[in-house]
Specification:
- The protein contains six helices and eight strands; from the N terminus they run ααββββααββααββ.
- The chain is α+β, with helices and mostly antiparallel strands.
- Strands 1, 2, 3, 4, 5 and 6 form a six-stranded mixed beta sheet that branches.
- α1 runs antiparallel to α6.
- The radius of gyration is 23 Å and the shape is elongated.
């Protein structure tokens, strides 16, 4: 669903504002500009000589649309999208071959507090902060929040990584828009994004991939008074 993509891209703009990227300051989370769309942090983005680097990565997990009841019309639907936001304290690792990034795999109470603060910043910004209004323009309500720590307790292993899973009540894709434009709510989001934002660039690319068929003009209308009577077109004024 395109609406689910709009949710993820709106969240990225809130967590990593275009104004902060351009100014190099004013990032609203401990991750700073290290907010990634559907991918993990690259090795070169880790902070040099730091014990760890706070990062965020956002993923669209699933979405769905269903009739509210058996008596509902086609437009009366419940729609939801599930977004995973992975918050972690990332470090460089080496398995004897190439280096890669992974979450810090140490029991560190101070690091845990940093991770907890990063997780809470995400929830605050998206659900409560004034700057999160862009996200809430797309999401009617966050109906459920799950925060899960990445761990293998049977092996006594815990990583400094948490997945924030947001279940979002959203609008369904609405294709009743002018020819050549994105369906709602992507169309509305595009109008409210800064000119040089990452999310705007991605929605513009999405528009190039999505081709909606043109709807033919209605030339006339016919009314039949009974099944046996041939209707006549409305007279022209």
């Amino acid at each position: 669903m395109l609406a689910a993509e709009a949710v993820r891209l709106a969240a990225i703009e809130v967590l990593c504002p275009t104004a902060a990227i351009k100014g190099g300051a004013g990032y609203p989370t401990l991750a700073g500009g290290r907010v990634y769309d559907s991918r993990a942090v690259p090795l070169q983005d880790l902070l040099p000589r730091a014990p760890f680097t706070p990062v965020l990565a956002l993923y669209s997990v699933e979405s769905g649309s269903r009739l509210r009841s058996a008596l509902s019309d086609a437009a009366d639907r419940e729609v939801d999208a599930v977004i995973d936001i992975v918050a972690e304290l990332s470090v460089g690792m080496n398995d004897g071959g190439e280096q890669f990034t992974d979450a810090l795999a140490e029991d560190d109470p101070d690091a845990r507090l940093v991770l907890a603060a990063l997780t809470s910043q995400v929830r605050y910004l998206l659900e409560h902060a004034p700057s999160g209004s862009l996200f809430r323009r797309i999401v009617r309500a966050v109906t459920n929040v799950e925060v899960k720590t990445f761990a293998a307790p049977e092996l006594g292993l815990r990583w400094q990584r948490q997945t924030i899973r947001l279940h979002c009540d959203i609008r369904d894709d609405d294709f009743d828009v002018p020819d050549g434009e994105l369906p709602e709510p992507c169309r509305t989001l595009l109008k409210h994004l800064p000119a040089q934002s990452y999310a705007r660039a991605k929605l513009t690319a999405l528009a190039a991939h999505f081709a909606q068929q043109s709807v033919p003009w209605l030339e006339n209308a016919v009314i039949q008074t009974s099944p046996d009577v041939t209707g006549e077109a409305f007279p022209q004024p």
